[in-house]
Design a protein that fits this description.
heterotrimer; A alpha/beta; B alpha/beta; C alpha+beta; A: alpha/beta; Rossmann fold; nine-stranded mixed beta sheet; 6 helices; about 30% strand; globular; C: alpha+beta; Butyryl-Coa Dehydrogenase, subunit A, domain 1; Butyryl-CoA Dehydrogenase, subunit A, domain 2; Butyryl-CoA Dehydrogenase, subunit A, domain 3; seven-stranded mixed beta sheet; two-stranded antiparallel ribbon; 11 helices; 11 strands
């Protein structure tokens, strides 16, 4: 039976301090790398799906050698097949190049269900899921918040304008996940011991030319000095500042 | 350059962000074409200044949301070297697919644009900003409430075109919105009450504000200790409940050390307290010296206007 | 800020991938399940059963033992788990230490094949809880003179006596009890339903409140003959177990110290007095620097000892030095941390007083501070000074 594929991305720990040096985020200063949080939710449902259906499951990551860790962590949770997509000549790839590489690799894997997080915690774009779906000619359900993969007809819940809606899609299909209520399973010692023996297949792929160049990275704009206002009449002004100056609403 | 805007719609009409997309396109020197999925908001779009023309795209596929089908239909009629949409759930989905169809790159959640084409967007959840330059065609989605909207007063021509796409998703079941309370640990916006709220029932006012902006409601240790009705799970500043939201609104909270330690790394802090000497004002980015009774209703009203 | 371990001398680079993964597994569980709930558990004086289940599911019980459902991981991995558990609470680490090092280990090393098959898999999964009965009301540092007695009555042993200060006793399915059979100390496996056995809980503790501490009472307790541990006699039996547990403690104490240091550092950066965070004052920096020194030394000691344990080149005296040193420094760090927290340090808002109270027990159990001192003294001089007879 056709299997399950999960796309995972390695990102800096989301509580890490990000510092910019010479116009680039200083990656060497990052001490802790993790699996992007939304990908973890996708992975949990994918593993539940595998356990319920008996289908094979493959975890795929596009990244340098340190990204082997996300695959090993997935192996500790029970994922048997592990693929890292990389070429040493690659530096920072744009969205087209990433999607080109991943869809090429996915074409070689017979997957009816492709799982991924809605967006990564480092670039926060959300393009990979739908972009890969388009390149593979698949439908895609984005920002899934709940799933039931226990039966013959897995269903997935997404938001709608009036609340939420449940879909039971035909396969093949690509699914992107936001945070779900499902508790993420922990690895246990047995899983970790088995991950020790895990084999990671490293493959390269054609990526095409870059169309986007990174000019620079910069720290976020300095916060202005704290301001104090008198009386409730100042609330509209503060709300305006939150919107236009702080840009948090 | 030729720019096509994918209109963002809401409730059969235009979402306010669409005018912001037009404004951004105009700042690049373009007179954009606005494409309206399902035809919604077509007339309205004609009234936005700077719009070149409006295409209302009608087709069966727009009855259900299927990003692939919508992208297929819209891509067929949308010309343009640059396609711009809003960085909303559907905007991101559709625009990603249009970019993939065209073999061009997409940059999402853009917060600054200039001819070149130079594009800026936040990365690492806003801990840094990335400046990019794009040669050739591309697709962009812009962050809402970041670009000034184009004013009204436009009089663009509206055309309707029939175009549909292949729908492959069907809704099995629809549910009404369940009222779900966000947990302080997960929320990007938190509004917290302290002993200054006076009575636990008064937290209902904070919940009303929270519902408007999709925030979680928290509480100081003082409030939790004083009132049984204020649950421990709401406490900010307890061991294990350190929060790190983009916006923290502290209402009737003095700002004593236990609370501060739990929220001091919030990106922006707003404090509402009637005591001008309250320590919370030392860490607040925007401090409002006022009773909560006076400030909160105004806050709720102002935030409702933005939604 | 989220918990960060202390790693000033890059111990991370000396750990294998599996060791780091196991440490991270324990660290995440402690952050998510223990830290938010430990104050309530202490307040209620209970060890929540969910924690037993979770520890079993994670596979950390008896994790350094080979076979019979045990993971067979390195002692360093076990130490890292102890470090994380005790960062949460010494009581949680005590549960795991007793289960793995004091109850499972003697069955594994001194038991018959039938005993290993019967008990170990269920103890590794956490289904059966074990405890270790050596200490008596009148015999603590001097276990050799214990009075709990076993008599061979043909088709069974009859046990009489009492043990005290037994972690897990009241919730245990299985007790490894050391008693004198014809004057020789032997190990016996007592099951909770054996006639004449009871395990009342000891109450009124100001320390290790989220841990079950019990008496084990044997009043003509009859146990079948196949319950004796066949392969060990004398104090060597219990002392081997204690050395294993002490090893885990030398890592655990580092965890408690790290928790106190982390809290003190965060507090000092947040607390403003005289217009500055107190972290800007020299006396506070002096204290934090001292803590960093001691934690770093303790970590290096523990790691080195762990590698020796894995290589089989350790000595008991080396374990005594590490246990003693690390618990002492952790207790000092807890006190110093309380001082940095000012009055706030006495609130359960912060883990400080809980760690401090716990570490008082940890300083005394598994060999008191003074006893370990004498073990080292004997090693250095060749002269034992435990008793007055030379």
């Amino acid at each position: 039976m056709a299997g399950i594929a999960v796309l995972l991305k390695q990102v800096p720990d989301t509580t890490a301090r990000i510092s910019v040096s010479e116009g680039r985020v200083d990656e060497s200063a990052i001490t802790s790398w993790v699996t992007s949080p939304y990908d973890e939710y996708a992975l949990e449902v994918a593993i539940q799906h595998k356990e319920a259906s008996g289908a094979s499951i493959t975890a795929i990551t596009l990244g340098p050698p340190r990204a082997d860790k996300v695959l090993k962590d997935a192996a500790a949770l029970g994922v048997e097949n592990l693929v890292r997509v990389w070429d040493d000549s690659w530096e920072s790839l744009d969205s087209s190049q990433v999607q080109h590489a991943l869809s090429t690799v996915l074409e070689g894997i017979d997957a009816d269900w492709i799982y991924c997080g809605k967006q990564s915690a480092d670039r926060n774009q959300g393009s990979t899921g739908p972009g890969v779906a388009e390149r593979l000619g698949l439908a895609c359900i984005v920002e899934i918040s709940d799933a039931d993969v226990s039966g013959d007809s897995p269903s997935f819940t997404r938001s709608s304008s009036t609340g939420s809606e449940r879909l039971s899609p035909a396969t093949p299909i690509l699914l992107t996940f936001t945070k779900t209520e499902t508790e993420l399973r922990r690895p246990n010692v047995r899983g970790i011991m088995m991950a020790k023996k895990a084999q990671i297949e490293i493959v390269s792929a054609d990526i095409g030319d870059a169309q986007v160049q990174v000019v620079s990275h910069n720290p976020p704009a300095e916060k202005p000095e704290g301001k104090k206002f008198e009386g409730a009449d100042s609330v509209p002004e503060v709300v305006g500042l939150l919107r236009d100056e702080a840009k948090v609403i | 350059m030729d720019i096509t805007i994918i209109a963002e719609t809401r409730g059969g009409g235009l979402h306010p962000v669409t005018a912001q997309l037009v404004g951004a396109a105009s700042s690049l020197g373009a007179s954009p074409t606005v494409v309206c999925p399902g035809g919604a908001g077509g007339e309205e779009a004609c009234g936005i200044a700077g719009v070149g023309k409006v295409l209302a795209v009608t087709g069966d596929c727009f009855a259900t949301y299927d990003g692939g089908a919508w992208a297929e239909a819209l891509d067929a009629v949308a010309g343009g070297d640059i396609v711009i949409g809003a960085a909303t759930t559907s905007g991101r989905d559709i625009c990603s697919r249009i970019a993939a169809r065209r073999g061009v790159s997409i940059i999402q959640d853009v917060t600054a644009l200039s001819p070149g084409l130079n594009v800026t967007h936040p990365i690492y959840s806003g801990k840094a900003m990335q400046d990019l330059t794009v040669s050739g065609n591309c697709v962009l989605t812009l962050r809402a409430n970041t670009f000034p909207p184009a004013p009204s007063g436009g009089s663009a021509q509206l055309s309707t075109v029939q175009q549909s796409g292949d729908v492959r998703l069907a809704v099995a079941e629809a549910f009404a919105r369940a009222s779900e309370r966000l947990d302080v640990a997960d929320a990007d916006i938190i509004i917290s009450g302290g002993r200054g709220m006076g009575h636990p029932d008064n937290f209902s006012h904070l919940y009303e504000v929270a519902d408007v902006i999709g925030a979680a409601v928290g509480a100081s240790r003082a409030a939790v200790d004083t009132w049984e009705e204020i649950s421990h799970s709401m406490q900010v500043g307890q061991t294990g409940k350190t929060v790190n939201p983009s916006l923290y609104i502290a209402v009737g909270i003095s700002g004593a050390i236990q609370h501060l330690a739990g929220m001091r790394t919030s990106k922006y802090i707003v404090a509402i307290n009637k005591d001008p000497e309250a320590p919370i004002f030392k860490v607040a980015d925007y401090g409002i010296v006022s009773t909560w009774e006076e400030a909160i209703p105004v806050l709720k009203e102002e935030l409702s206007k933005l939604a | 800020m989220a918990y960060e371990g202390v790693d000033f001398y890059d111990i991370e680079s000396e750990l294998s991938d599996e060791e780091k993964m196991v440490r991270d597994m324990a660290r995440d569980w402690v952050s998510e399940e223990i830290v938010p709930n430990i104050e309530q558990a202490c307040h209620d004086g209970v060890f929540p059963d969910e924690w037993r289940v979770a520890l079993g599911d994670m596979g950390v019980l008896g994790m350094a033992l080979d076979g019979y459902g045990c993971a067979g991981m390195s002692y360093v991995a076990y130490g890292l788990v102890c470090q994380e558990l005790e960062r949460g609470d010494s009581g949680v680490r005590s549960f795991a230490s007793v289960q793995g090092s004091l109850a499972m280990y003697p069955i594994h090393d001194f038991g018959s094949e039938e005993q290993k098959q019967k008990y170990l898999p269920k103890m590794a999964s956490g289904e059966w809880v074990g405890c270790f009965g050596l200490t008596e009301p009148d015999y603590g540092s001097n276990p050799g003179d214990m009075i709990t007695k076993a008599v061979d009555e043909g088709d069974h042993y009859l046990l009489n006596g009492a043990k005290m200060w037994i972690t897990n006793g009241t919730i245990a399915d299985v007790a490894i009890v050391w008693a004198k059979l014809d004057g020789v100390i032997r190990g016996f496996i007592v099951e909770k339903d054996d006639p004449g056995f009871s395990a009342p809980e000891m109450t009124g503790k100001h320390s290790l409140k989220a841990s079950v501490t019990s008496e084990l009472v044997f009043q003509d307790c009859r146990i079948p003959k196949d319950r004796i541990l066949p392969h060990v006699e004398g104090l060597k039996g219990p002392f081997s177990c204690l050395n294993n547990a002490r090893y885990g403690i030398c890592w655990g104490a580092v965890g408690a110290a790290q928790s106190c240091f982390h809290s003190a550092k965060e507090y000092a950066l947040s607390r403003i007095q005289f217009g500055n965070p107190i972290a800007a004052f020299q006396l506070v920096q002096n204290k934090l620097a001292w803590m960093l020194r001691e934690i770093t030394k303790g970590q290096l000691l523990a790691l080195n000892l762990g590698r020796k344990k894995d290589a089989g080149t350790w000595t008991a005296e080396q374990i005594s030095l590490a246990k003693m040193n690390n618990v002492d420094m952790a207790l000092e760090i807890a006190r110093m941390a309380r001082d940095i927290h000012g009055a706030n340090g006495i609130l359960d808002e912060y883990p400080i007083m809980r760690h401090m109270a716990n570490l008082e027990s940890v300083k005394t159990y598994e060999g008191t501070h003074d006893i370990h001192n004498l073990i080292l003294g004997r090693h250095i001089t060749g002269i034992q000074s435990f008793t007055r007879e030379l």
